[in-house]
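ok trying again, last paste got cut off:
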Amino acid sequence: MMKTPRILAALVATALFAIAGCGGGGDDDDSGGAPEAEKAAQAKASGDVTWCIGKDTTGAFGTVVDNFNKANPKANVKLLELPENADDQRRLQIQRLRAKNSECDVLGADVIWVPEYVGQGWVKDVSDFISENGDKFIPSTIDTTEVDGKNYAVPFNSNAGFIYYRTDEVDSAPKDWESLYQEAAKGSGVVYQGFRYEGLTVNFLELLYSAGGSVVSEDGKQATADSQEVKDVLKFMADGIESGAVPKAVTTYKEEESRRAFESGNATFMRNWPYAYSLGKDSKIADKFDIATFPGFAGNEGAGVIGGYNLAISAYSKNAEGALAFIDFATSPDQQKIMATEASLPPTIASVYDDPAVKKAMPFAEDLRTAIEQAKPRPVSPVYPQITEAIYNNVYDALQGKASPDEAASKMNDEIQKALETF
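nice, full thing came through this time. structure:
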């Protein structure tokens, strides 16, 4: 089947969206505290800079590098492509950082990696740059760069989920999760990412944040998962499977399994990332679905979980000024437009969503900006890989009926607390 360039871009970007939304775990943290990070306060477009980020599947990263080099003849930026898989990207970056290797000046880092990198003293403090330029970014994207009141990265691209619904089965998306599940039970159900992995953490937190709950205290030192909000959300999710509102097969679903079920007519509703929109418009249900931002829960407003990639400067860079100059350029509105139109990567600058070319490439641009604005970060902690494992393992057990909501919440809390105490 022939596909338009925009659809092809969405296909090759599928892995990037999964990365952006559901960054991987991996190696255990082995440091005993966070060294004071050096500041990268000045931007000077000169010298050699190497940008280490995931594979440039659409050519957009290369375009930004070429644009910078043409505009700055005294500088030379080189793109070093890492694998598409998030875990492999993180592993290769960490290998270099642990060795204090200066090869990578600019790191393309999943938003959930930033606290870990900060905790290890691997990235420079860019608080001065954010202080001067932060107003142009969507506030929720800035939140992903902050640890203990300082900023250690600059927002590069973002992501947030949507509710997809079949317009031939329901008139509109319900305003709260409770009503959505009720409508789903009457129709073909609701699908989401229920497999035992990062995606389940995200799906759980979207509900939990809407319920007003958390799993880690604001200061990042105390587990808060043994709460009524966590128990209520776990019960709600487990009851959804028991009642038939959610198919039991959802515990085997990641993004693509959910998308295929929705496009095949096996679900009235779907929770998924924006990439599924373009693919859906190239399917047999092209004119039979629409999207909405997340509904509320338990009387509260809806809330998403923010994804995406930030650009950070390696603590071992030999050209921090040049690195900061490139980051400034790569996150400017013109280059963000290229990321959006050529790579389907959601901008972090609010004004870019109003650009006609962006609206054409992303017909859902206005909804996406709203979704990103309402989204919240995942727990900010150097031991996030252990935290997310505690979350998705126990949520999965609750969905499978292997643990009651109270048991799953208690065990989740204990495992998160143990993880926090290792750093």
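cool. Residues 111 and 294 are 21 Å apart (CA to CA). The chain has 17 helices and 13 strands.
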